[in-house]
Task: structure prediction
Amino acid sequence: GLEIFRLQQNAAAPMRASIFVPALVALACLVLLFSISHADLESSLARASVRFTAQTIGRPSTPLAACRSIQSRNKVVPKSQASDYWIRGQAASVVDERNGVQEFGNMDAAFWNDVVRRDSYGLPEDVGNAVDTASNNLIEILNEPKNGPRLLSMAFELDPMPWWTFSDFYMRLNILREYGYKTNEVNALIVDDRYRLEDEPIDLGPNWIVGYASNPPDISGADKLFVYGLDISNVGNLEYAHGLSQRTRNDDLVCINCDFGYIGDPDGRYMRGRAKELYFGGMDTVDFLLFPVHKLDEECRGSSADLNDNEVIAYPMPQWLKESGYKGTANLAVTGCSGTGKSSFMNALRGIDTGDAGAAQVGNVETTVQATSYTFTDDACQLLDDDGTECRGKEHFRLWDLPGAGTPKFPLNSYLRVMGIKYFDLVIVIAAGRYTETDLTLMREMNQNGVPFFAVRTKIDLEIENAEWDMGYSPEETMDVIREDLRANTGLPDDRIFLISSREPDNYDFPQLKRVMNHIMQQGIEDKVDRALRRRLFVRRYFNTLVNTEDFHHADA
Result:
């Protein structure tokens, strides 16, 4: 018995040790935690979290892979920015409604008509694609098996473009027209009296019974009922709409741009509860989403590896660039250290003097403390007209005077991100002498991220005068020496190096810079239009719920 007892004790010793040692470690950790201040503890945990995230995610091997990695972790959900969307009052007007062809009747007519592709109905390509996709999805949803009457709400999150010269109502009517042609059904459309069908240049076709809510037509021969803009925020209005839908063969109700009231209000909750009873076959919301152009560009350019390829950095588009009308403009940025003549270059390019209204402020210290935009002038396009090439779209060109990089307010390591450099069609880096290390680092980072840029050497007239006085050089010899130095200093080819004087905008490389710059800007706006026209409509479905269009907080909401 004694031997058995010893064996049991020996066997238990390691177990006691295995319990005792972790207990001591835990006690030591508690003492250590109490010795650390609350702020230090939060900082330690934050650093540990960052280390863990970096080790877990890993570093993609290429910028493109980095972009995919960011996108896979963070799905883009568009949010409303009221100033980000085109004001319809500034868009062109429809001038040929009788033939149903959308023409543009303001100063942009020739430009938009040339660059915007249209379908057989005269709709811009992006709208035509959206109409086709929406009608196909509507057919698919309404053909699903059901066990009773259904209520379907159609919501739209659309980003209107400058060439959208029509009303929201007009686009929805085009979807219904396509639906009618594709199904060959006879359907009814009841419109709230606030909307005027007579004002919309569209014929829905022979398969639609159309009328107003105040005096609805006989819809007994219709397959389904579609209603537009009705107030269904209370039970009384819901039961009125339900009574109308019961007159059709299908009993379904499709609501477009209807008001269902706030779900948090008693009336809204009661109405939705009653709707589930009346439409026991299903009650869904279908959201048609057309992503804004700036969101598409952020998906493509919104993240990449840093200059040393050590980590993935997000590059969101600055709000001021969105608010300036990014989706309908080409944008050129001018940057450089203080005293290099950025503002003088901007004024010379636009053909205005320093004291004129709208001129960029000139000084020997950094006078640009925030990104400032300027419009193109006729002078900026004059040389293109002189050589027989038409300057098209200058109303949609923006020149941006950016603060210099490498200052305490705009450090170099965050400059590309804060200034939104990746979203410009062209960047001009200004210098009055040899480029600084800050300029060269910025150029390397732009080159790595595929941002087109030029090196522009200002005050060349002073250099020529000094070289002639000191060494007897001719202007051509001086420019050759400076150009060779810039090639060695920046690594750029001659076609991206320009020697100019803001005092003499008709001499040196200034005329050629204008020509090349304008061609790039014209290509930039046309490329942006092309990306917008190729947008595809996304469809999201929300089951067993009714959502107001404004609840999506988006363009058409």
User: Anything to note?
Assistant: The two ends are 86 Å apart (CA to CA). Residues 1-22, 29-107, 553-557 have pLDDT under 50 and may be disordered. DSSP finds 17 helices and 15 strands in the chain.
